[in-house]
Amino acid sequence: MDAGKLCTRGVKTAQRELSIVDAAIRMRNSHVGDLVVIKKKDGHDFPIGMLTDRDIVISGVATKGGDVSRLNVGDIMTDVIILVREEDDLETVLRTMRANGVRRVPVVDRNDALVGIIAFDDIVGYFASEMTNLARVVSSENLAERRRRP
């Protein structure tokens, strides 16, 4: 399984100029905890940062005395962007997450254009499903044995 197959497409994004208030509303309305900050070029979105709900609280509300009305996404986003490629396997994605202390990583194509986002929870869900399939092999084997040798 690779990042491109497991990632969520239709990523919620923002540009640097968007107000923090509007970004928070976008997160709320989309039921997400992050926005990939993008720069548009030639009809494609290129990730340049991340904005999380935690960024808004820690770098916005807590340091600005609660008044974020004049802040834009570019003021508090994390601009050291950690990326994975859509052909990267899940081991590579997990290693990247662990090495950088992040739970969500934008997925890009060979031209560095945004194609999706993959979260730690996506990977856990995938492996949980695979473990269920493994467990079914054991129960199927036992059932087949009972049918063959009653």
From TrEMBL:
- Pfam families from the entry? CBS
Record keywords? CBS domain, Repeat
Repeat in keyword set:
yes
Give the transmembrane ranges: none
The record ties this protein, via InterPro entries, to: CBS_dom, CBS_dom_sf, CBS_domain-containing
Q: Which residues form the CBS domain?
A: 7-68, 77-134
The protein's name in its UniProt record: CBS domain-containing protein
Organism encoding this protein: Persicimonas caeni
